[in-house]
Amino acid sequence: MSAPPRRLRDRGTGMSMTVKTVMRWLKGPILLFGIYMVLYGHITPGGGFGGGVVIASAFVLITLAAGQKEGLRIFPLGMASRLDSAGLLLFLVIGWLGTWWAGGYFFENYIPTAETARFSLFSGGIIPLGNLVLGLKVASALFLVFTVLTAFHITDELLGETEVQQRQEDKS
Amino acid sequence: MIEVLALLILLTVIAAIITVLTSNLLHAVISVGAVGFLLAIVYLFLSAPDVAIVQIGVEVVSLVILIRATLGREVQKLKTVHAVVGVSFAVAFVAVIGLFGIQVFNAFPQFGIPVMQRFADAPSLVYLQSGLAETGAPNLVTAVLLDFRAWDTLGEATVLFCAALGAVAILRRNARINTDKNKEESS
Fold first, then answer.
1. Which of B58, B137, B171 sits opposite A124 (nearest CB)?
2. Under an 8 A CB cutoff, do B161 and A85 touch?
3. What is the ipTM of this complex?
């Protein structure tokens, strides 16, 4: 049994010019805010999860406004899935270094913070590292799920007549 | 303060009820968004900006996904069947849950007072007192998430990984056919 022909529902045209112009202005600040939230998660509200979601939403905005093709050109699916896996793996490695390198327990904070370094970017030991890795992971995972869930649909005109008839029979 | 909170929660409940009762899928998606944003405001009032940020972010992204998935398909009007048996079952279920809920709320400490305050050396007290000194991170929420309770965060990350893996695994064949075969056909 051969698979029915399926195609991208979105032909890469995207939305109107107004939306595209606003997207061009907004994508940079949104991305920057997400990166800021990931990097400064141990000092200000935010962190890996929130920042990752904001970064993913920037790419979702690009995909919605400029079309599927443009979104996948900037953030290909293969890269997203690889970053997703690499993020989780690196997070495990960060935790495992606590037992192997520092000789303590899993997820031990083995990088000490000096008193003078407090409230600065390079403080908190493994916490900013974990934030960075988690932000990478969450951003790529959410974009991956968004693209996979919304991009590929079976539309009736692509299915062929027999399949459409079968589907209608199934429905009724 | 508590009145504003009560009003917000009331609006949230109303939006949730509209979500369930409306017959149009798009209206339901929009009311889900209202529920999410009202909850985010509730979190802000309870001075939890970390949770509010994640709530708004996830809400926006998931809402966009929902709208996109709904608008692409033919939007069908749901037929709501008000069967007597179903409604009575639902009412009985809600009554039982409500009774248990009231019992649980009676056992809770007063609103705004930390639960763990009643114990001598409770973990939350230790986190608050020695969190900055031990981890070096001023944001205690992140310190708890990635240092004291990093195991939980690992579990959370694994859940998200499995969700992405499941989505890709289920829809993978379509994607491959889409990218490879169509290129061959068109070229």
1. B137
2. yes
3. 0.77
